[in-house]
Each structure stands twice: as C-alpha cells, then as structure tokens.
Design brief:
Blueprint: H1 4-14, E1 22-23, H2 24-31, H3 36-45, E2 57-58, H4 73-83, E3 87-88, E4 91-92, H5 95-98
Parallel strand pairs: 1-2
Antiparallel strand pairs: 3-4
This protein binds a DNA duplex (13 and 13 nucleotides) through helix 2 and helix 3.
DNA sequence: AGCGTGACGAACT
DNA sequence: TAGTTCGCCACGC
C-alpha cells in the first residue's frame, strides 16, 4: 500500500506518452515537492512495476542516469530505444524533443 | 558564488 | 530487527 506521494509520482509518470521521457525535477515540480530524491526513491522502488515505466525517467542532464534493473543503465537504454527514444553515447538524442512537459 | 540536480540516507514505526 | 518514507546537503557548471 503505497503512499499518496507514490501515487502522485505514478500519475505524473503515467501521463508521459510512449516515446517520450521525463525528468525527476519535472515530476518533483509537478508534485510540488522539493525532494526530487524522493521521486527517485519512489521510482527506484517501482512498486507499480509494469505500470510505471521507470525507464522513461531520466535526469535533466539528458543522461540515462541510474537504473535499478536487469542490466542496469544498459538495459534502460535498450528499453528507451524500444520505446522510440534514440540514445547516443549513453545519452538521449534530442532530449528536449522527447522530453515530456506537464505544461501541456 | 549561486542555483539546480540527485535511483540516497537517516529517522520513525 | 527491518522496511518504508521524505527532505536536506554536497558536487558540478
């Protein structure tokens, strides 16, 4: 039984369309929290397993960041690529182009 | 020097 | 004890 906070993260993450990615800061801002790290933890725990595409969450740096999964970051990149997000040198290509904004 | 980012750490139950 | 949650501090540019 996750906390409302987790649900907020899940909601924010689920509104990200396929082929797009979001950032910890964007989610934190959307939730109105100052703790972007809490978002990382919530997503890292990934209590919503397949429903929360945690691999769609990336740091604002445009890099893949971290990933707690099978092959780690490498796996994350592969998943992103499958989603339609192209990556170059371990970074997201056209990051701002695939970056989803809750401003829409 | 200041602001922003971060898949953590420490505290509570 | 262990598990879970939420926010501050440190490093980089």
């Amino acid at each position: 039984m996750p906390t409302p906070f987790q649900e907020e993260v899940y909601k924010a993450l689920s509104m990200v369309p396929k082929g797009c990615v979001t950032t910890y800061g964007a989610i934190a801002a959307y939730l109105g929290t100052q703790a972007v790290r809490a978002v990382g933890t919530a997503v890292g725990k990934n209590p919503y397993a397949p429903k929360v595409p945690c691999h769609r969450v990336v740091p604002v740096s445009g890099k893949i960041g971290n990933y707690s999964g099978e092959g780690g970051v490498t796996r994350k990149i592969a998943l992103l690529k499958e989603e339609g997000v192209e990556t170059v040198a371990g970074k997201i290509d056209d990051f701002e182009h695939v970056l989803y904004r809750y401003d829409s």
